[in-house]
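Notes continue from the previous slide.

Worked example: a multi-chain complex. Inputs as given:
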Amino acid sequence: MSAAPGRPEGGGQERSGNGPEQNLPEQGSPAQNPSEPDSPEREAPERDSSAPGRDAGRPRPDGSSTQQQPEPSRAPEAAEPAQSAPVAGAASDGPAPGGGADAPGGPAEISLDDDAGLNPEEEALRRLLKDSVDDLEPSPDSLDHLRRAVPARRAHRRQAVVGGVAATLVAVVGVPALFYGGVVPGIGDDEHPLTASSSHGETHGPEGDSGDNRGKGHDKDKGDKSHDKDKGGKGGGDAHPSPSGGPGQDGADPDDTLSASAPSCGREQLSNATAQAGAPDGQGTVYGSFTVTNSSSDACTVDGSGMVNASVQGGPERARVTVVDHTPGDAAPGLGDPAAASDDLVLRPGQAYIVKFAWVPQGGCNGNAPTPDGSQGDPEVPDPGAGGDGGDSSNGGGDGGGNGGTNPGDGGAGGGSGEPGGGGEDTSVVLTHTPEASGQPVAQTRLQGGCGGGTVYRTGVLRGE
Amino acid sequence: MIAPWPAARPARLHGQRGDTDDAMAAGTTVDHLTETYRAHYKSLLGLAALLLDDTASCEDVVQEAFIRVHSARKRVRDPEKTLAYLRQTVVNLSRSALRRRILGLKLLSKPMPDMASAEEGAYEQLERDQLIQAMRGLQRRQREVLVLRYFADMTEAQVAEVLGLSLGSVKAYGSRGIAALRTAMETTS
């Protein structure tokens, strides 16, 4: 203990060099009564008390240059540690014994060196600390464990992040969409072709045929038109004149006036839907339609023309089916005048809208495939898998025909997403219709004869009878 | 075929940055992990041993610190800061380990049950070390300051940052800690 008072001073002084008075007094006065209270005056008293033999030490304050004098007088240990941190001598001696001798040396050197060096005692402590744990070695498998654990943890984090992002997205996008979808007229038509074609992407890309181009051109027209109308809708009564004045295509002026007042059709209002497909004509083209009825007791406005999706079922090679908008002069003249389509049709209770489509198969199957039941056994049906199962394929044809008739939209989603590898069934195309307000298909129909792919032409929303 | 290339090349070039790409990050982290392991694991083990009052959980703490730091991609982006992150994490974990032990709860799940047996000799020795015992007699803050300042060779400013203390507090804790330590060592010896 005798040494104890001296040493803290050593430590204290070193630190005091940096900013002595402020720190020590604040903090520790209770703990270290002897040294700290003195701190303001510390230097003089400490040196006196701590090292009587330190006479050499006292002069230092007077002239820093004299520093080195005291050191030689002291134990050599003291001098060395100050200059080079890892002095073995001082450290190995251990703090306890060496400390008494070193303590005085410490303050002196430090006062000059400031932070740069540790005083001997600190140096000793440093070495002791390092020595004490020097024998610790990582366990042999610790690196292996880390190599496994880090990726695992990272995956964990990523999942958490993804989950968080997903939840945020749902909140940010979904919630407003709920309100928005029910109140505000749908976004312009121009988005639908993109959505429709991308939803069965593999069918779309390669076919850069004229059908696509025409479709796009048409889209733009529609987009412009719908933008105008959207503005009108949002603007309320004031803006109303603009839609009717703008494109002026659909002679449904009375409906337009109504559209300002009728809210958009919600998903539950349009859940009652059917699909029908006729028999193939001479070229194999199948005409059909989706009929969606306003099943609620309120009038509502059908915004946008919804989506028509085609998915190919059966057949090992994925036939390509493209859905394009019907345009004048395309391969489906039976669909009527595209201008007849309405972008915001008002449905009174019980009224229905119709989306017509035409299925124009492509390629070698043209002559045979279109018939729903007929030519299933045809060798040209390019289905090696199905080829083995003659019976099945004919069954498939039968089913297809049956479904193709009218299939209420109940199983819309399931049918639409049916696995392409549909067992022994022959290649067929399942068309689904999803109204703008609905998240999922409300009606579907199955068309035969898609062995070589083809094109589905669709109309916009037409007023039902 | 496109993705792997950009991923692989930067990984080799800068072996230490893991940001943009998953593959890249995975590749670099392993390298970076091994590198930091070799460079710092042992010293961090010592750091944990000095901070904690039981040696059994040292390796757990260091392991957890490595896993945490290396699984956070942004933290390994700058390799020079890795050691700082690791030390900080070890300090934090040691504190919480202490707290939990005080509460009588079990620390972290033990990743390596056989750890103790493998290194028992060294840890046992540590238990008998006079300095270690004296260190454990210090207040936690004093011990932390001393360990970071002298074992980890951090400056007082760095210690202050890691511990969330003011510079003055660090100095005070340090000087008091040394004094207490000296007293403890002298009485025992």
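Summary box: The longest strand of chain A covers residues 352-361. The two ends of chain A are 108 Å apart (CA to CA).
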